């Protein structure tokens, strides 16, 4: 099928951006959005053009690197699905598709569809880790952990850090991302020693680059990992807990 693509082109972070229009004549319903960009780039290279810069890695819905905005929606029209799994079956011959970067003030464009998502990395660096001295690794069954708590921790730990939640939010909030990290670490006994310190550090870093949460819910609709909207409540819960418990708990 033939598809007309309006693709965002931007030569460098300081340069002006613009949409450029291309046509792909041999797209198939089985193709993903990322594979469509591959085909477009093959055409551009064959004709001596400049290929579109975009990111991808695993193409299995695991890494989140492929995130772009398709027709004003992060990743694409299908809910909770990364760009590399967004298939073209929903389009018909002759349709027009607009592809641009993930849009957020926290994500400056590097080139074309590639954005700088290091603001998310800075949140993790601030506290999304375990820094306690663990010593010799204990036996797997030596630390008691309730099954329900373990399952909850795994559900929240599924966040792949693609950043689509921020791009979907009208306020550019990162509460779904930060809440998922705080929730899964707070649920585990081996990481609770730094719980308050972690919450203060991560939330303070988050507020430097991201907006406030107004509970719109768009973030949960686009999250490829299916992180529930309840994760946003964890941010204020952990913030309040850290204030009430003091600086070291």
TrEMBL record:
Keywords: 2Fe-2S, 3Fe-4S, 4Fe-4S, Iron, Iron-sulfur, Metal-binding, Oxidoreductase, Tricarboxylic acid cycle. Pfam families: Fer2_3, Fer4_7. It comes from Sanguibacter gelidistatuariae. Residues 150-179 form the 4Fe-4S ferredoxin-type domain. This is succinate dehydrogenase. It is an enzyme of class 1 (oxidoreductase). GO terms for biological process: respiratory electron transport chain; tricarboxylic acid cycle. NCBIfam families: dhsB, PRK07570.1. GO terms for molecular function: 2 iron, 2 sulfur cluster binding; 3 iron, 4 sulfur cluster binding; 4 iron, 4 sulfur cluster binding; electron transfer activity; metal ion binding; succinate dehydrogenase (quinone) activity. Belongs to the succinate dehydrogenase/fumarate reductase iron-sulfur protein family. Its EC number is 1.3.5.1. Its cofactor is [2Fe-2S] cluster; [4Fe-4S] cluster; [3Fe-4S] cluster.
